[in-house]
Known about the structure:
The chain is of the alpha/beta class. 41% of the residues lie in helices and 14% in strands.
Amino acid sequence: MAQRIVFFKFGSFSHINPQIARLLREHFADFELETVDVVAQLIKPRKFVLLMNMLHVFWHYGLDLLRRRRRLRECFFRTPYLFRKVKALCVQFFDGRDAAFTFQTQSIFDTSVPGVPHFLYTDHTNLANRQYTCDTSERLSSPSWLACEKEVYRNATINFTMSRHVAESIRSEYGCDGDRVVCAHVGANADINRSVVPRRDYEAKKILFVGVNWQRKGGPELVEAFRRVRERVPDAKLTIVGCSPEIDIDGCEVVGRVPVEQVGRYFEQASLFCLPTRREPFGVVCLEAHLYGLAVVATPVGALPEYIQQGKTGYLVQPGDVEQLTDALTSLLSDPAKCRAFGRAGFEAVRHQYTWENVGKIVERHVRQVLPEA
Length: 374
C-alpha cells in the first residue's frame, strides 16, 4: 500500500484547513502528507481555463449577477465547466503517482481519483440552503451544478460532516448511502483552556459580535435591537469584530478585521455573545464563545441548535425578529447571574465533544477501516 496521503484543499476554509492538515499528520503519522491547493496550484496557472470559465459563469448566472442577487466569487467556482476541469486536472495530477488515499475539504469540487479511496470533510451542502426561513432561492446553484455536487458525495468513500443536519442533507437530499456519511463534528480554532471556565465580568454588559459578512450574519438586526436594548439597559455596550459597518450609536465600538490570534481578547472582555445570523453552515464562532464561558444569543439555523441549548446555554431567536432579539439580549444583560450560569453550562456542554482531537479520532477510525491492509 502506498504510504502517501494527498490532501486537496480550497483556500483556508475559515482557518479549518490548517487544523485538518495537522490532524492528518498526527493521526496518520505512518503516511507522508502532500497538500494541494486546488485554486492556487490547479486552476490559477491555467489562464485559458479561467477565461473560459468566466463565459460559463455568465451563461449560468448572468441575470442574477446583473441584478446583484449573487456574488461573482461564489458563482465562479460553481459551474459544471470548472467542475469537470478540476476533475480532469486531479486525474492528470496522479499520472504516474500513487497514494494510499485522498482527502478533501468542502464540496465545491470532486477531487476523487478512480481506484483510490477518497474522503470528504464538509460543513454544508448547497441544498441545505432550503432549510433556512429567509429567502435563499439565490443561494441555490444552477441545476447542472447541483448534479455535479451530487457526484462529490457519491464518489466519496466516506463523507465526514461537521454537523448532523448536513449529514442528513447528504443522505436525504442527495441520496447517499447512510453508512457512507459520518458526523465527525468540528473543533474550535482558538487556543482555549478547556479545563476551567474562563473568568470574566458578566456585569460589564458587553455584547460581542464576530463575523465578516455583516448582512448575512444578521448585523443590521443586531444594531436595531441594540438601539432598543439601550433604552432598557442604558449602560449596555456592543463590540463588532471582523467587519466595519458604518454605525453611529453610543456604546458601540467597531473594531473591524483583526488577526485570528487576536480575537480571543475580545471574547475575554465580553459578557455575552450574539450572532443573529440568517444563514450559517456551522457557526464555529458560537462554539468558541461557549468555550470562553459566554452565553450565546443566535438563531435556530444550520448546526446552531445542535449545541446551543435554548434557555440553558443561550437563546435562539427567529432570524430577522428584532423584538425577540431585543428581549433575549435584555434578559441576559439585566441578569449577570443568568449570564454566568448560561456561560458555564455552555462551556461544559461543548468542551469535551467539540475538539479537533475527537475529529481526528473519528476520521482515523473510519479511514483505516476501509484501507486495504499493508
